[in-house]
Amino acid sequence: DADVTQTPRNRITKTGKRIMLECSQTKGHDRMYWYRQDPGLGLRLIYYSFDVKDINKGEISDGYSVSRQAQAKFSLSLESAIPNQTALYFCATSDPGTGLFFGPGTRLTVL
Amino acid sequence: ILNVEQSPQSLHVQEGDSTNFTCSFPSSNFYALHWYRWETAKSPEALFVMTLNGDEKKKGRISATLNTKEGYSYLYIKGSQPEDSATYLCAFYGGSQGNLIFGKGTKLSVKP
Known about the structure:
The complex is a heterodimer. By secondary structure, chain A is mostly beta strands. Chain A has strands spanning 4-7, 10-13, 19-25, 31-38, 42-51, 54-57, 64-70, 73-78, 87-94, 101-102, 106-110. The mean pLDDT of chain A is 94.
């Protein structure tokens, strides 16, 4: 079984819709992250959480919100999706001193 | 805004060639430098986490060096194989900003 899972894996939605992307992990890591990848721009951090009570904005948090429901769960919401939020979204986890462990990604298309 | 630069942007080599690419990062407030390998249609996977100036890490035919004083790291692949084809990402962690800043990657293509 995968250590970091993301649902859904693919999603097509319309402008203005609310979307939630979910991430679960079995690695026991306290730290969780949401990144988006756009062609030519590399991975950019949206939000990160170092424990259940700690939520921090990343480089590009506008238009997004997150919820850390438990150590193992970190969800990303787009309150009102817009076309420029079309991207590949990755959830990741880590422990201090380790590299990031990435989930399989969610491909989101906003029409 | 902290900047992490990788060069070259892309690289095409023949099977058996050895190759290297560069990651440049801020030389102040250094905490760690990560290297990741990202194959097409997969997720990035961590190769190395480097924390000390002069660090050298090795995994099979892939190795990396780190110079924190001048702000660069090299990734070397010896005797490239087609299965080495991937995008190689570096990421800088300066403890003060609390998260990793990724470069845009070097895309390596190895022709049989």
